[in-house]
Amino acid sequence: MIKDMLAKLENQLLRSMAFQVEGDYSAALNGYEQAFEALCFYEKLGYKPEVETLWRRVLEAQPEPALVLFFHGLIQYHRGQYLSAAEAVHAAISLKPEVAFHYFLQARALTALADYSGACAAYDRIQELAPDSGVAQEGLHVLAVEKEMPGDDYYAWLQRFHEWLKPARYIEIGLGHGRSLALAGPETTAIGVDPYQGFWDKLDYVCPHGPATLFPLTSDDFFGKYDLREVMAQDTFDLGFIDGLHLFEQALKDFINLERYAQKDSVILIHDCLPIAPIVAERDRCTGFWTGDVWRIIPCLKTFRPDLKIMTIPTKPSGLGVVTNLDAASTVLSDNYDDILRYYLSLRCPESFDQRRMVCSVGPADENLIKGLLKIIP
Ligand SMILES: C[S@@+](CC[C@H](N)C(=O)[O-])C[C@H]1O[C@@H](n2cnc3c(N)ncnc32)[C@H](O)[C@@H]1O
What pLDDT score does 136 carry? Predict the structure, then answer.
């Protein structure tokens, strides 16, 4: 299966090269970035020679030195080698200072290196060169995220939860390209639900350690059609991750449906509970970086279900809610569903990040504290 995925990524690179030749840099770069991120995953899994061949193909296809340097920087960026990425793109810029996408890579590499003024200067340059692209405005959110939520991203935290809990059964709602599902460990049977991405040929990542079953359905259809106990061949799940449709009422429905199959110590993680700015939390998507209004679920659960243990980890890019002490027999949320929507859909997203931290029950991003607070480790 990994060989198939690598072949698929190779095709994606070839498509990006074709877009590049046609001059459609936006489509080309989107494809390259998505493939590079996945290739780094396979590189870490031990497929170094195969991935190296693909890196070389991309570099050798470049028609000029500035592009070779840029792509070298992009590869290093996705590998987490931020200094080397910043140096490579700096060299690309010295050869071709008029290319806006050079500065986007520079801004991201400098952000990762905590050189925020350098990153701001790069975004200013993008604003001069490509004022209609919206990249500079998006970049300011990325910068704010880095300042407000330094440290590990949510994938690293998900990985930790897998290591701590070693879940026998893991269920994920909303797969994207499959990167979060791939974190399931060898002791885990994973279930993935996604109406658009719930097919292996749509995903870029395999689950390298344990078996996974995909359901190409909306979460509502999945829970309407299946009894999760039968799907899991077990009465309860141990770890769940809600990252599907980014609307409050859907996240709430996903939570209600999952909790019916939980035991007290199961943990439900909810992505996007701490938006970096009110605009990224709008219900109608108007930004590239979008969390929707999932954040409402935290104050909602705090009020309606004081029996739950809840906190949000301030992890980039948009916070990770953690809920445990679950009660499969509770009907409080479903009984009050209409009232809950009425109350919480009218709640405004607080303007300041500090207010959002309070409303979203943000605690410190401290491993031991989280383990202790939630008593997820005996
Ligand atoms: C942000 S992506 C998930 C990213 C992924 N969990 C990760 O971290 O790598 C959101 C996914 O939710 C899926 N989605 C949208 N509506 C859904 C629904 N009603 N039920 C389940 N998944 C849904 C989309 O197809 C998309 O793949």
Answer: 82
Does the beta carbon of 257 lie inside 6 Å of ligand 1?
A: no
pTM: 0.95
Among 129, 127, 86, smallest CA distance to 107 is for 86
Atom 4 in ligand 1: residue holding the nearest Cα = 176
What residue spans define the domains of the chain? 2-148, 154-374
Q: Nearest CA to 323 among 278, 275, 259, 369?
A: 259
Q: Which atom of ligand 1 is nearest to the CA of 244?
A: 12
User: In percent, how much of the chain has pLDDT > 70?
Assistant: 99
> 66: CA distance to ligand 1 center in Å?
36
Buried b (16+ CB within 10 A) or exposed e, 43-78: beeebeebbeebbeebeebbeeebbbbbbbbbbbbb
Question: Is residue 218 in contact with ligand 1, taking CB distance under 6 Å?
Answer: yes
Per residue in 269-297, pLDDT (tens digit) is 999 999 999 988 888 887 777 899 999 99
Per-residue pLDDT tens over the stretch 297-312: 999 999 999 999 999 9
Architecture of domain 154-374: 3-Layer(aba) Sandwich (3.40)
Domain 2-148, architecture per CATH: Alpha Horseshoe (1.25)
